[in-house]
Amino acid sequence: MTPWWQSGAIYQIYPRSFLDTNGDGVGDLAGIVNRLDYLEWLGVDGIWLNPVMPSPNADWGYDVSDYCDVHRELGDLDILDQLVTEAGRRGIRILLDIVPNHTSDQHDWFHDSRSSRSAEHRDWYVWADGRGDDPPNNWRSVFGGPTWTFDEETGQWYMHNFLPEQPDLNWWNPGVRDAFDDILRFWFDRGIAGFRIDVAHGLVHDRELRDEPPDPEHPDRLQPIYSMNRPEVHDVYRRWRKICEQYEPACVLVGETHVLDPVVMASYYGQGDELQLAFNFAFVYAPFDAASLRDVVERTEAAIPEGGWPVWTLSNHDVIRFPTRWCDGDEAKARCALLALLLLRGTPFLYYGDELGLEQQNVPEEAQRDMAGRDGARTPMRWSNEPGLGFTEPGVEPWLPFGSGPNVAAERGEPGSSLSLCRGLLALRREHADLRRGPYASLQSPEDVWAWSRGDRYAAAVNLGEGEAVVEGLAGTILIGTSRDRDGEQVRAGLRLGAREGALLELS
Ligand code: GLC
Ligand code: CA
After folding, report:
1. What pTM was computed for the model?
2. How far apart are CA 232 and CA 104, in angstroms?
3. Which of 162, 284, 285, 349 to mutate for ligand 1's pocket (most ligand atoms within 8 Å of CB)?
4. pLDDT computed for residue 219 by the predictor
């Protein structure tokens, strides 16, 4: 039987920005329950929630202070249970975000760890002596500065691949491994269908703390081959996969495998015994032109092991929203991107707002909340153009500014909207088995066009160029086009596409 996440599409929600039900300007879990009808109408099968666990929010939920509870601003365990039940009733499953690489510096484990060199949890984190007055080695944090912070109390340095408020756990310690087994089971027992794993490539660090070598391509940077990306991380996922398989259906693990080589990314599938899904950042960061996209999709398809399953995504809470990053705000191009996302072989992840073609927002300096400048991708969902945007009560100041752009109410009844296009594509995937399961193969096409087949009966193409183009040799019926007036058109001698236009064809 096909697992649900192979045939389904998943929708990523940034909970603080989806819907605020208590007028504090912050989205909450009750808001997500409230909008399940919308997600059912749209046609998604799963939801991934950015972190909902208690957190001091030094990195907006990615600094967890308790792995078995819900942040009070977002709700509580009862509301989360209700979300699981209500979503389940609509055929939608809930995935949470788990942050195993590091905790908050406010987690009890770290409080204990830093209290003395002989504390019970001392070795749960990575402590080392400095080199004279300098840190233990040359590792650099992803957010800048050394990976090490000196702790006066016990006279040693602790490691943090991210902020000093995010001390790295020591995954060499068996107690850490056992604790996470229990955390996984705690949530799976509550009906959580799986996890997106934060920094999935980063958990294990080099035991000898060797210096990173310089990056040959960027001499001013280091290659993070010892602070993360260690081979031993695969043991962790084999262990987690076994836990997942104890549930029916098996729980799913999708890794934030932030590695740019599809071959390395594909290693996280193991021999079908590690992650079921691994995010593909080579695709996210590819230039938006036909040759580059085709190339990264072909390399990904070739790298993923037999039985493995690709993941495709256009945007997330860390990167610039795709209509801005890829399409310079051009709606026709954004529609081509959505069509491609939903017609590749693999599980598509839509980031909230993608379905509207929502652009990156400009957040003025005084309203910025994130230390790494990512607020523009995290602004409130635009439900309507009424005061409060349908996100919060009129007059309430949202936690991040509303910005500007399309909204659900306006797009919903509009057959030519991006929202209708997404919904149409999701419906076609449900209707035609080959659009879910059919193999991908690139097709011959003119220079600015990327064309591919899905099984024997379907072909899709996007023309990302500025002139008209014809994909020769295709004949059939257009099932859906980015120009919706072409839906149903009979194609005889080749598929003609206007500039920045895409279509899906049922071949005759
Ligand atoms: C991941 C998250 C990002 C966070 C970082 C540290 O990359 O997606 O938002 O800042 O990990 O946890
Ligand atoms: Ca709220």
Report:
1. 0.98
2. 24
3. 162
4. 87
